[in-house]
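#lab-general

N.A. 3:47 PM
ok so I finally got the sequence cleaned up, no stray characters, all 96 residues accounted for. can someone with queue access submit it? mine expired

B.Y. 3:52 PM
send it over

N.A. 3:53 PM
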Amino acid sequence: MSDDPELEKLNAMTARIKAEGKLSGKSQGSDAADGSKPLGMSNIGFDFLAAVLVCTGLGWLADNYFGSNPWGLLVGMVTGFAAGMTTVWRALNNRK
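B.Y. 4:20 PM
back already:
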């Protein structure tokens, strides 16, 4: 091996972490997406809200830049709602 004791500690710690993950049978990040825990799917609402707010904000900015009130805002809201519903649909269909 190498002469660096810190590197050996790091390698040993990495091996232990990998062994723990294999023993538990779960991969990293599986808790948030599988829905088996009560809060596993709690981020769906936040994802939907974020999509609506971001697209609405972009529409508002487009209105201010181009002077096309209220069309940019309306198009942004509809686009955000569609993007949010797509996100919800995909999250619920990927749930096992």
